[in-house]
Design brief:
4 helices, mainly alpha, Non-ribosomal Peptide Synthetase Peptidyl Carrier Protein, Chain A
């Protein structure tokens, strides 16, 4: 998943984010629900969350400020941010 071409299609945002999170947390992509919170529901620790954000930035060719990353609690929050900031 990592080190691939950047994603430019907004319809691929959610599946790509789900795969990144699933790979990092070693869970099934189907378990990564839009309403799931990274830490509370999916069990991500701080380092996991940081790495997930870095992989998402790389996959979509965007930069997510620390403040914005902290605001994004759910998978849907992350997807919405990515869609708004895709190049």
């Amino acid at each position: 998943m990592h080190k691939k071409e950047k994603v430019h299609n907004s319809k691929d945002v959610i599946p790509t984010i789900q795969k990144i999170i699933a790979n990092q947390l070693k869970i099934k992509p189907a378990d990564v629900l839009l309403t799931a919170e990274l830490q509370k529901d999916l069990g991500a620790e701080s380092l996991d969350a940081l790495e997930i954000i870095m992989y998402i930035e790389e996959a979509f060719g965007i930069s997510i400020a620390d403040e914005e990353a902290r605001k994004a609690k759910t998978v849907e929050d992350i997807a919405n941010y990515v869609r708004k900031n895709m190049k």
